[in-house]
Each structure stands twice: as structure tokens, then as C-alpha cells.
């Protein structure tokens, strides 16, 4: 490729909103946390990362529940893939659906990805509800979610891959924590 390259790529024709490194690290985290049975995502966007999480959910005999209230004028571009994977896309305010999310988690360890419009509130509301053995990930760490927010709502949790949370060579910008 000639010229300057961009951080993002395309996946199934959808512009990724996360770097390729995110996909790899999530794969490693899930491999090392076989107790994870459920998957929840806040912030579907175009749906590329949702497909990745949907694949992991299918592999574990589950399905992804993903929410987005502001789709920037379009639905995810991967509806047919969502259908095949059993991804449940809900275009509603996640904070009005707390009980539905708890029902989906069913008291089982969950991979919970926060990437909606109010990450501080997402962490504050959902971290206490996650079952033991769950992993929470919050994107845009250091920008839309600050270290003090994470510390405040995850006391006693174990950081995962903490060295990479702000590593600009990896461009992960996501914090991952395991609930005891």
C-alpha cells in the first residue's frame, strides 16, 4: 500500500471502529477465560465487532445481545450475518433494558463490552450486576472513560492486559477487568 495507512480496516465490508489488535486481544482473553458463557455489547455501531463477539458466543453455545440507540442513520450492515449467528440487536436505550440484560446473563459469567455513548454510566450500572467470573471491557479508555472511573467501580477486580490499555503502538484504548 502506498502512502499513509489508516488505523482502521474493513471487515465484511463494514469499516471497523476498533483496531485489528482488539480482535486478537479479545480472542486471547476469551481463550484464557473459558468460564465465559454469555455476551453483551453496548454500542453496536456498524456491527463488525458484534460479528466477532457473535462468533465467540456461538462457539460457546450462546448468542450475543447488543444494544445501540444511535446508529448514525443506518442499521448494522451485517444483518444477514447477525441472523445466521443469532445476534440479538436491540435499538433501544440500554439503561431502560437493565432487567432484559440481567435475564440474558442468567447469573452466568459474561463478556460485557461497553462502547455506547455514556461509558461511565455503563460501567457504574452494569459492573455491579455482572456475575463472578465475568469480564468487563470499556472502550475509549483514557478519553471517554478515565482511570479513576474504572478504579471506583471495579474495586477488587483483576486487570487483564493492563500494560496495553493505553499503549499507542497497539491502539487498544480499552480496559479489561475480571470480576472475582
Structure description:
This protein has 180 residues and is α/β, with parallel strands linked by helices. The chain has a single domain, classed as Rossmann fold (3-Layer(aba) Sandwich), CATH 3.40.50. 30% of the residues lie in helices and 19% in strands. The chain has helices at residues 20-31, 48-59, 79-85, 98-105, 119-126, 147-153; strands at 10-11, 14-15, 38-42, 64-67, 88-90, 110-114, 135-139, 158-160, 174-178. The strands form two sheets. Strands 5-4-3-6-7-9-8 form a seven-stranded mixed β-sheet, with helices on both faces. A two-stranded antiparallel ribbon has the order 1-2. The longest helix has 12 residues, at 20-31. It is globular, with a radius of gyration of 15 Å.
Helix and strand topology:
Elements: E1 10-11, E2 14-15, H1 20-31, E3 38-42, H2 48-59, E4 64-67, H3 79-85, E5 88-90, H4 98-105, E6 110-114, H5 119-126, E7 135-139, H6 147-153, E8 158-160, E9 174-178
Parallel strand pairs: 3-4, 3-6, 4-5, 6-7
Antiparallel strand pairs: 1-2, 7-9, 8-9
Tally of separate domains = 1
Name the CATH homologous superfamily.
Answer: Vaccinia Virus protein VP39
How many β-strand runs? 9
Percent strand: 15-25%
Oligomer: single chain
Sheet with the most strands, sense and barrel status: 7 strands, mixed
Tell me the radius of gyration.
15 Å
Amino acid at each position: 500500500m502506498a502512502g499513509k495507512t489508516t488505523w482502521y480496516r474493513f471487515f465484511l465490508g463494514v469499516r471497523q471502529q476498533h483496531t485489528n489488535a482488539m480482535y486478537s486481544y479479545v480472542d486471547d482473553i476469551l481463550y484464557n477465560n473459558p468460564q465465559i458463557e454469555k455476551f453483551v455489547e453496548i454500542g453496536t455501531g456498524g456491527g463488525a465487532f458484534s460479528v466477532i463477539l457473535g462468533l465467540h458466543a456461538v462457539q460457546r453455545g450462546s448468542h450475543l445481545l447488543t444494544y445501540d440507540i444511535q446508529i448514525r442513520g443506518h442499521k448494522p450492515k451485517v444483518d444477514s450475518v447477525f441472523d445466521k449467528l443469532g445476534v440479538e440487536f436491540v435499538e433501544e436505550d440500554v439503561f431502560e433494558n437493565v432487567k432484559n440484560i440481567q435475564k440474558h446473563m442468567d447469573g452466568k459469567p459474561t463478556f460485557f463490552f461497553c462502547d455506547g455513548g455514556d461509558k461511565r454510566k455503563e460501567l457504574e450500572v452494569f459492573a455491579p450486576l455482572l456475575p463472578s467470573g465475568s469480564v468487563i471491557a470499556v472502550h475509549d479508555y483514557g478519553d471517554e472513560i478515565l482511570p479513576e472511573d474504572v478504579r471506583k467501580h471495579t474495586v477488587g477486580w483483576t486487570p487483564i492486559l493492563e500494560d496495553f490499555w493505553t499503549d499507542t503502538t497497539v491502539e487498544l484504548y480499552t480496559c479489561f477487568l475480571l470480576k472475582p
